[in-house]
Amino acid sequence: MKIIEVNHLSYKYNEKDVAINDVSFSIDEGKYVAIIGHNGSGKSTFAKLLMGLLEPNENSIKEFGIDLNRKTVHELRSRMGIVFQNPDNQFVGATVRDDLAFGLENRCIKREDMDSIINEYAEKVNMVEFLDKEPENLSGGQKQRVAIAGVLSMNPEIVIFDEATAMLDPRGKKEIRETILKMKKDNPGMTILSITHDIEEAYQADEVIAFNDGKIVFQGKPEDVLKDEKKLQEIGLDIPFVVSLRNKLEAKGINVRGSSLEEVVKEL
Amino acid sequence: MSSITLGRYVPRDTFIHRLDPRVKILSLILLMVAIFISYSTWEMTFIIGGILALFIFLLALISNTSFKALFKSLRAMWFLIIFLLLVNVLVKPKDAQWVAFSIGSLNIYWESIFQSLKIILRLFLMVSLTMILTTSTKPLDLTYALEWYMKPLKFIKFPTHEVAMTISIALRFIPTLLNEVERIMKAQTSRGVDFKHGRISSRFKAIISLIVPLFIASFQRAEELADSMEARGYNPKAKRTTYHKLRFSVNDLFAFILCGAFMAATIVFTVMDFTIKTPLFVPWLVIGCFCVLVYLFGLGAANARRYKK
Ligand SMILES: Nc1ncnc2c1ncn2[C@@H]1O[C@H](COP(=O)(O)OP(=O)(O)OP(=O)(O)O)[C@@H](O)[C@H]1O
Ligand SMILES: [Mg+2]
Fold it and tell me: Which of A150, A236, B83, B161 is 20 to 30 A from A249 (CA-CA)?
């Protein structure tokens, strides 16, 4: 089933800059989709449009088969969740516990049920021991895990990550990547859109969509898209050395699968 | 940044920490009234002041508030204190006649000295009380309590929930913004901006170089936060449940009675114009203090039993 259908979607913040330029495509239910593109190519704008945080042009977005407009936005939004880039700017509560409660309060969950839900989802992202900690005493990765728990506790059918790992150190990045994979395993039916600059993460996805200047320039399997180095460079994306090396080896008929230089060298 | 940490919440598990924030706010007001009531004689002022000081000292002790921090607040007010002292001592009170000493032709009166001492004592007690409240109560709980007190305003369409939400977000972002200030200061210092030295005009420029990026960053933060809150289903107009429940317990009732009694007693003293010479005043005072002590002791013992498992 097509869970997201986009038809001739355009958006501009002001007369001059067209952030999204006549985009059409669709995403199947249960897919893990990576969205790539250079800075300012319109990825975040696109994510906000899908969440109804920006108003799309008429009849351009359908989610769950329902047209997204002012009347349906609250209902549709309640079936989706988004994790943004900056760990600090999405932490609303005074403590982890309060932050998780914030989403439940919005959903009018009964107070008596909240504690068990909070514990359940804190457990899923390994944050139980930090429940009473304030955000300033948490690392960026921990805050992002709280954000993920907050989103998961709403039982969303679509989860969007807008560069959720971009501001984290390597350890934080790894934590979040693992959390996302675990989340995918626990909820096979969940559709995940992950906006990322991390080509490695894009490799883990079922499908890759590449943006360039407000337009979609690719949609397809990661292997097909990410191998075309020339094309990627054309749209302003850096390819990590390992990936480039791997591609070159493959062209010579040597197949390796390691994702870090050491692993590749070891395999060789 | 140390001045900002003064009076900051310190997580502990004391009797006072556990009290209902609504009761704490109300008690603060009751005790403030008691502190600010005036008496016709100096002895009364200092006896009641002393008793209140002793009581507040006890509160600080129970709530585990550091005395160092309390006295630091006094140090933070040094300018105000010196100013008050000077004004009071230099200006002759109307019916002052009790000369303490003279400097040249200038007479310094005992009355003025007492007057300044009284003001300083009141200021100190007031600040101490407030600090005990803020170090023993989570800012968020204070916000909920304020929201509760603002409830009647809902009838005149006052956005009590929005105000409470705004305050709690502001509280949540204070440390984040302080970090940001530090970061921008470092960045600007590395570009040669000097915040600590130089003429007023160049320091003013330095401050501008801090404020402008801080504002821009804060606006961006606010926008992202708003997006995130909206995405998580926040709608101030819609119905929401609340996670926090303010609980009024027996202890709260006792604390409220105690503070209420203090205020009532001081009002009775001033209205009936009590002095130490009033017949039976001293025995009654002693009995009253003894009762309060027994009461506190009983409360302490009862709670120690309840919480020690
Ligand atoms: N609030 C805004 N007001 C005006 N223009 C904006 C606003 N947000 C984004 N833009 C512009 O819209 C275009 C697309 O921005 P967008 O944030 O969607 O890009 P992005 O692909 O997410 O970039 P990045 O990788 O840096 O996150 C850019 O040219 C940007 O300058
Ligand atoms: Mg972006």
Answer: A236
